[in-house]
Amino acid sequence: MSDTIETPSGAMPASRTRFGSNSGQPMTRRDGVLKVTGGATFAADNHPEGMLHAVYAAATISRGRVTSLNVDAARAHPGVVEVLTPANRPPLAIDPDTKPYPFAFRTEVLQDDTVRYAGQPIALVVAETLESATEAARLLSPTYDASPARIDFDTVEPFDPQAVGVGSPPTAEKGDVEAGLAQASHRVDARYETPGQYHNAMEPHAIVATWDGDRLTLDTPNQAIVMSTGSFGAWFGIPAENVTIRSPFLGGGFGSKAIIVGPQILTILAAKMLGRPVKLALRRDQMYGPVGHRGATRQEFRLGVDADGHLTALDHLTTAVTSTFEDFIEPASNASHDLYATPALSSRHKAVRLDIGTPGPMRAPGEASGSAALESAIDEAALVAGLDPLEFRLRNYAETDPASGKPFSAKALRECYAEGAERFGWSKRPLEPRQMRDEAGRLVGWGMGTALFPASMFQANATATLRADGTALVETAGADMGQGAWTALHQIAADGLGLDIGSVEFRSGHSGLPDGGIAGGSGHTATAGNALHAAGTDVIAKLADLATNDENSPLFGAGNVGVEARDGRLYRADDPDRSQSYGEILARAGLAEIEGAGQGGRDPASAEERAMFSHGAVFAEVTIDPDLGQIRVTRLVGAFAAGRIVNPRLATSQLYGGMIWGIGFALHEEAVHDKRSGRIMNANLAEYRVPVNADVPAMDVILVDEHDPHVNPLGIKGVGEIGITGTVGAIANAIWHATGVRFRRFPINIVDLL
Ligand code: MOS
């Protein structure tokens, strides 16, 4: 494969990883112009003929019953077509209080008058206009029989999910933790808290549902397009093939668009009832409840360290918040499974049920919260051991996976530490806190954290069609929620065909295409990418057969030495002067096109043998105003090793995005509940704080070379989620280094410092 253009110095990330003639290049987003010019069609942009608008009324209490709804007033409002309540809601094919299929979340679809959290849909109004539906929903004026909200962690008894048969996250037990703690020279016993956080995608959830007999068409953002056809179909008793999902663009997903949620089902139901297309677009405040969130956690650590600074035991117990009706339990303790060598390891999860919407996967589920706490605890362990935090991490470097004992498929974490530390200037860090000030007299602190995320894969299929004119079509139902699938997958597909990306048409974002798997778990590029590449190489193999068996081809008889595909031509591997264009080969064979197919997925045998992760190291500098307590992150350097990098520009953007989320996790994001009503008091983007440009410092991402021959044929790992994981701890540790005070509750707030 040919090498590619050099990175212009300074302007682009310092990647040395290049592969293919398209992959490895820092191409800009192929959907970028469409998006910035308004040409990209998002779900709510669809207005089929005869479409109605739906708006739901939401509960303002957290627990109890709806005792009345003024349905007459709502119905009498001009333009109103229907009001759905538990009294007239048509039946569904499945019971919403069961788990009828994998990945299903029990949800609220007006099954009864019970209120289980504030913000729960309690009625759906359908009208000719959005304004009419909005006003009529207000006229419903619900009354309630309210019970006290259970919102406070401390007032509810935790339960052990394993003991009660609820799906628990995986746990780890290795060695004798109590013995390890007993023999330790130093101990860290610390409890950390992380808050409820909400996905807050730029594009709130939206759906346009259109029925044609028993066929259903949905315009809705979705991270798992083909799988979701079956999930939606199950609610209405129709087969997957009767459901079409169009999801060409998503304005962010972060996990919340990987699950089917109640408001979507209600909209489809209304469309069926009324025989007209119906649209529902959630308001920003409605994003705080029925569409998932990152559940709050409390995490208790017990760490033992011997006199040489080696861990003797690592014990991580997470207590996570879940809802009263669904069992998603944030798998935060999993963060301790795969990073630090220890003879004794224990990880467990408990849960408390509160009157809140069900939590769900949110960008780096488990690892984000778990790593925030783990990396803080490791910093505390380095302190008691009297060691520099990087030195401590190197002493406890895991050569094999601590939880499973398996070798890593590849692990360039040492290189991440070294390259990140060098770029940051870590060697100049004083061991003691409160040693550095900037020119304005602000306290300066430096901290670091290790980043880790599993190299997941799902299952994907793809097809490729080479046409007589030498161009090609590739297809897979991928999902681009902003991460760059339209570009990165297209690059990989073009390489599989040995064509320039400009000669390859890429179709995606539609359930009628081959199943592209899930855009989640940081595994989409690896999974769909391998499928697309394999589809291309399948075509090339067929093409090579034609040419090498054709007596009049310059490639005749080259079957044994092999041929190479590049720039739309096949070349004899041993003689680059003998070649033939794809178009000529097809023409001589009298074919209009050649089709190929490919699959992507984890080889079960290799997964059995090896532990597969992306790794990284994040270094942070903060300044703190000693009088005002104002915290500023002034520098962030992240070095990440994630196998082959398909597009250094987009990978860097993904890592920037993750690291910026890390700033938000460390310093800003928190859903604040009113303890009497249970309502979220900051369900808007003004008061639910996320980092803005002024909060984002100079950021530096280093893409560290890593060749992983085991993870999948192309050696691709994920970059979508890992950026959060090291960053939160790095910032918290920098705050300790600036102040000498350890904050164990996130977000760390200006109020904490006063
Ligand atoms: Mo992600 S939370 O796997 O979409």
From TrEMBL:
Organism of origin is: Jiella avicenniae
Which parts of this chain are annotated as the region Disordered? 1-31
Which Pfam family is one of this chain's hits? Ald_Xan_dh_C
| Protein name (Swiss-Prot/TrEMBL) | Xanthine dehydrogenase family protein molybdopterin-binding subunit
Q: Which domain of life is it from?
A: Bacteria
Q: Drop me one GO molecular function for this one.
A: oxidoreductase activity
Q: Report the residue ranges that make up the Aldehyde oxidase/xanthine dehydrogenase a/b hammerhead domain in this protein.
A: 37-148
InterPro entries according to UniProt: Ald_Oxase/Xan_DH_a/b, Ald_Oxase/Xan_DH_a/b_sf, Ald_Oxase/xanthine_DH-like, AldOxase/xan_DH_MoCoBD1, AldOxase/xan_DH_MoCoBD2, AldOxase/xan_DH_Mopterin-bd_sf
